Amino acid sequence: MATTTEHHPSRSGLPLEPEMHPLVENKHDLVSVGDLIGNVVLNQVHPRGWWIGFLAGFAMLQVLGVAVAWLFYMGVGIWGINVPVAWGFAIINFVWWIGIGHAGTLISAILLLLHQKWRTSINRFSEAMTIFAVMCAGVFPLIHMGRPWFFYWLYPFPNVAGMYPQFRSPLTWDVFAVTTYFTVSLVFWYIGLIPDLAALRDAAPKRWQRIVYGLLSVGWRGSAIHWRRYEKVYLLLGGLSTPLVLSVHTVVSFDFAVSIVPLWHATIFPPFFVAGAIFSGFAMVVALAIPIRKWYKLEDFFTDHHLDICGKVMLATGMLVCYGYFSEFYMAWYGHSLYEWGTTIERVFGPYGWSYWALLFCNLVVPQILWFKWARRSSLWLEIVCISALIGMWFERYVIVITLTRDQVPSSWGRYTPTIWDYATMIGSLGLFFFLFFLFIRYLPMISITEMRELLPRKQGGGGGHSIMENAP
Amino acid sequence: MSTATAPHAAGHGHGPESEEPVPYGFIAEFETADDLVAATRKARQEGYTRLDTHTPYPVGESADAIGFPKSEMGVVMFIGGLTGACSGFLMQYWNNSYGYSLNIGGRPYMSWPSFIPITFEMMVLTAALSGLFGLMALCGLPRLHHPLFNSKAFDRATRDRFFLSVEATDPKYNSTTTRDFLKSLTTLTVEEVFE
Taking the CB of the first residue and of the last residue of chain B, which one, N or C, has fewer CB atoms within 10 A? Predict the structure, then answer.
């Protein structure tokens, strides 16, 4: 490293990614990158789309407030849950939201380790999406508890009753996995934000902005020694987050797989859940990015080329998920288990069969259009596929949970019908997500200024798209 | 922290010690990262040791040039992660065996496979937190102010300029010769910054 000199299109000896240059369109330089991203936060009058999104989110958030207040007053009986389906919408939405969050970590950590430079323009807001999605996910187990004010009993702490959690239970693993995931995502996001906050501090025209961004940027001054430590931490956090994200959804799938319910007790569950998480998460990233890049005119940074790659990732993960459906079906048939096969038939043709077909339509049929390049590069088609995938992945969890209505013993069969309060809580969680997300867009840089500057070619003042490993010994 | 308002602009009297401004060091401004790296190497050859560079994005060669080839963060996070993993495992083992013994389906108290997920999560959690706090502690952050922020030109260190700083604690520091030396390296500003 220290021996290389001035011109280093590939300092690490790796060839430059041929696709690097289209990742920043037009002739940008350090100033124009900073201004285009920073002005969204510092100066720009917000487009009508922002207000629509924000107000819609805020209105739905009120629904959450009402639903939770009524729930705390009346108890979980206001939901449609009962034996045999004791979790219902709460766990469906929990898994759905957690899954959406996973794409953010995938983009920021796994693609970082894989030298995928196209991640740069979408990593910041997918990380924000992760944090908000995990918050939405966390709401559901908490309010499902019945006595949510005792939530801290989930953690081991010395207490006069001398009681501790049962550490052999996947539900306890879940508590640790989700807590860790949220904390680590927040740390990763914040560390990534520090240099950008410093850039905003120095560019801010208003006093309050200089004070707020100044405090948040912790006095960052771009020192070479600080940068070296910073990059090392960032790289190691990427390395830690990669197994973390896989472990979190694996643990979530253990909530089901460790039980003995037919079709839940399957080794395919962890990889199947992780693939589904990435599929739905990418769908959410792209579904949000398409309108936002248009409203804020950020097409120079989030190009059609990015859409194309995201479409390919969705196609691949979507096919993995569909392989999971096939595997479940095949194993039930090949395994000669009366209960597995019976449950499969119930799942496909039973009283809730429509949801299985809806799931196949949304996750298997619609994404096939992504085989075509014109569809991957069309905002409209991609948006349609993304919304379809989000609905499909919600139905996937619905189908899994609804399996409980018909298990081994017909005498314990039952039905599950969500009530208006189930729907209100679900819509409310969407409100919480959009409310937080639109606030984030308004007050924090949604694309990493620092990393976009690094991505610029050296002759335009940038870092020539160096990868973080090269600077972080 | 708010540099643009510059309530404590360099050299202008404020406070009791304003009679004799204490120099923090010199900063020299460069247009490109390559110029900065070349200048840093020259300053190093010249015998300066208390050097630092300030750039809008990481420039690894400049850290190499000032003599900071490797950061300590790997060790910090490794120790943090190891501590978390060990204490996480012991916490589960102790709690479910001695603190509050639980017999789950006749499994042994030391049923280590079921303790692995939480051990792993605790390892990641503590490694990440030690990364954050270690970074802050080693960098001396957070801090509300730094002498460099007294310089108006330094605002561009997060924008489009690359700065080399020579601190006054350097044995070779001299307000005349150091200035002349830095002027020979760059066509842009060379400025003395005060505490």
Answer: C
